[in-house]
Amino acid sequence: MALASTAVGVRRRRSGALAPAMLLVPTGIVLLAIIGWPLVQLIIISFQEYGRAQVFGRPPEWVGLQNYIDVLGDPFFWDVLGRSILFAAANVALTMLLGTLVALLMMRLHKAFRLLVSVGLLLAWAMPALTAVVVWGWMFDTQYGVINYVLSLIPGVDLIGHSWLIEPLSFFAVATIIITWQSVPFVAFTVYAGLTQVPDEVLEAAQLDGAGAVSRFRLIVFPYLKSIFLVVTILQVIWDLRVFTQIYALQGIGGIREQTSTIGVYIFQTSLGTGDFGAGGAIAVILVIVMMTISIYYVRKSIQEETL
Amino acid sequence: MSAVIARPVAAPTVQPATSSGSRRPMSAARLRRRLWNIVLSAIAVVVFLVSVFPVYWMINTSLLPNNLIRGPEPHFWPDELTFRNYELVLFGDTRAPFLPALGNSLAVTLLTVMVALLFAFLAALAVTRFRFRGRKAFILTILVIQMIPGEAMIVSTFRVLDSWQLLNTIAGLTLVYVATVLPFTIWTLRGFVNGVPIELEEAAMIDGCTRTQAFWKVTFPLLAPGLVATGVFAFIQAWNEFLLALVVMSRPEMMTLPVWLRTFQQATQTTNWAAIMAGSTLMAIPVIIFFLVVQGRMTSGLVAGAVKG
Predict the structure, then answer these.
(1) Is A62 in a helix, a strand, or coil?
(2) Which end of chain A has less neighbouring CB within 10 Å, N or C?
(3) How far is B144 from B96, CA to CA, in rounded Å?
(4) Is B114 left (phi over 0), alpha (psi -120 to 50) or beta?
(5) Cβ separation of B44 and A228 shorter than 8 Å?
(6) A254 Cβ partners below 8 Å, 6+ apart?
(7) What pTM was estimated for this model as a whole?
(8) CB contacts, 8 Å: A131 with chain B
(9) How would you class A254 by CB atoms within 10 Å of its CB: exposed for 0-12, middle for 13-18, buried for 19 or more?
(10) Residues 272-291 of B with CB under 8 A from A
């Protein structure tokens, strides 16, 4: 077994391929079986006419690109896609902004208040997504919801009996509140942890040189935190673009499905709801391609850093 | 509570030398600073209230009798405290019994955490401690898999599991969850393994350990914080996951808690918000406790991963 003692600093062992292969076997098997094989199946289905009859044993028929042509030619698909992208963009922007502000706030707070904020954020973060939707749905309840009650205390406002979920725009406002409420803690904690790594001396020096709070953030803090911002933003984009549980559960409480579906829900509906697995597969493949395009920069950067 | 990131306050302390005479009128700068602190503290309280209120409201509702919460005015604290809702959820004769779902959730979650950590540890060793052909491709694969949405794969996952007779089994769902969390788990653990000096393993091997022993007896214990952080991630993913559980565990007796909550909600939709809130509380409590215990380590782990790439 040759140790890599030739070059100083290169400490990894250049052993035969056997040891790493053995270590990767369990992971490899699981990923191939549960991700790889279904992914291949998904791509195959997306080129087939595959409906309920095929589920019950009728051999599927190859239709080439027909599913893709159908999906891309369906204005409803573009509605859903556009809606999902807008929704994700709004949520990511809001979450990043609020999360960063809360992190900056935590830096300036005295210990007791920082503890208070941390505990609050933790509780919101720890709530299971489905539970969160159910609870917010109850708070926004038409008749007995606390939010309608409190808002109706304002003179001239009477919202008792107002449904927040019927109208698509206010449906998405509620969904945004729920998702932001749950995502801000992750951003806030991560950015805060990053902020604590910015050396105080640099900030003090900048302050002595007359830099204001905004330019200190822009010129010093932001460059330090760039990689953290990048990672967190990409993660948020991925999570918000493929959002399923919140929208699906909220629709169950009272939204109109056709007007409020995002792409994750749409795939589920097309496949399991209407039974058109071929079209569902085509939409899924398109979504994967969209996601990859969005995150390609992140992947490339990670790989570059890996090889350093 | 080890939850909160403790850090010495860096920013707004006033030089003590100038603040000797407390009776003297404050300078404009000090006054402004004090006002600013009050404003910040007030904002902090608002952030706290907004974060906590839904959690509080869930617990509050769960402790009130159902007829009371459907009154004209909400009760802002449980002034007519009752545990009836919890009794109903735990032992009531509903279409969706809670305890079997809890059992399924616990089994799947714990198995997922253990298997995922073990597999991820081995894989992380492979990519950090060895240079081999295909290493870069493996890392690329790990990254790309994280982009693939589970909803997209739901049908084919279902069919694959079906063909292996794994539908409605603990093993089947566990396998799916392990595959879902493995990429992130490997990615994070990799950063932690990098943090353990390889010299320690080498020293152990000079002292007569085999390499396997060095990994197990030296590296593995030193990874404790990383294992905790990634274990929590796996725990929360498995505990909260809804869609895959809905599709894979379609038999009522195989339900996990999120599916149970949804069934329960649908079954009692117009009648019993109080019981639904009791169920939600029961489902949220384990996660909240888990989070409170290990949060500090978790974010530091994520940041370490982000900075080191």
Answers:
(1) strand
(2) C
(3) 38
(4) alpha
(5) no
(6) A137, A142, A163, A165, A166
(7) 0.82
(8) 58, 261, 280, 283-284
(9) middle
(10) 273, 276-277, 280, 283-284, 287-288, 290-291
At B80, the pLDDT band (50, 70, 90 cuts) reads confident
Residue type, A108: R
How far is the first Cα of chain A from the last one, in angstroms, to the nearest whole number?
A: 25
Nearest of A111, A174, A147 to residue B44 by alpha carbon: A111
Encoding tokens for residue B140? 């690329």
Percent of chain A with pLDDT over 70: 93
pLDDT bucket at A282, cuts 50 / 70 / 90? very high
Cα-Cα-Cα-Cα torsion A167, A171, A173, A179, nearest 10 degrees, comes to -170
- Interhelix angle B98-129/B135-145, nearest 10 degrees: 150
For residue A15, what are its two tokens? Answer: 């052993």
Helix (H, G, I), strand (E, B) or coil at A49: strand
Q: Which residue type does B235 have?
A: F
Query: Quick count: other Cβ atoms within 10 Å of Cβ B14?
Result: 11
Domains of chain A: 80-307 (1.10.3720.10)
Residue of B nearest to A182 (CA): B51
pLDDT (average), residues A26-54 = 90
Which one of A37, A130, A144 has the shortest CB-CB distance to B261?
A130
pLDDT number for residue B48 = 95
Residue with tokens 């706290």: B48
What angle, rounded to 10 degrees, do the helices at B98-129 and B273-308 form?
0
Distance from CA of A169 to the nearest CA of B (A): 22
Q: What is the pLDDT of residue B173?
A: 95
CB A247 within 8 A of CB A171: no
Average pLDDT, chain B: 81
B11-19: long-range contacts, CB 8 A cutoff, minimum separation 24? B11/A107, B11/A108, B12/A108, B12/B36, B12/B37
Indicate the pLDDT class of residue A68, thresholds 50, 70 and 90: very high
The alpha helices in chain A, defined as continuous H runs, are 18-31, 37-45, 52-55, 66-72, 75-108, 111-126, 129-139, 146-152, 168-195, 200-208, 213-216, 222-241, 245-254, 257-260, 263-268, 277-307
Region B115-124 average pLDDT: 94
Mean pLDDT along residues B217-241: 84
pLDDT digits (tens, 9 = 90+) for B21-31: 455 666 888 88
B139 touches A at CB < 8 Å: yes
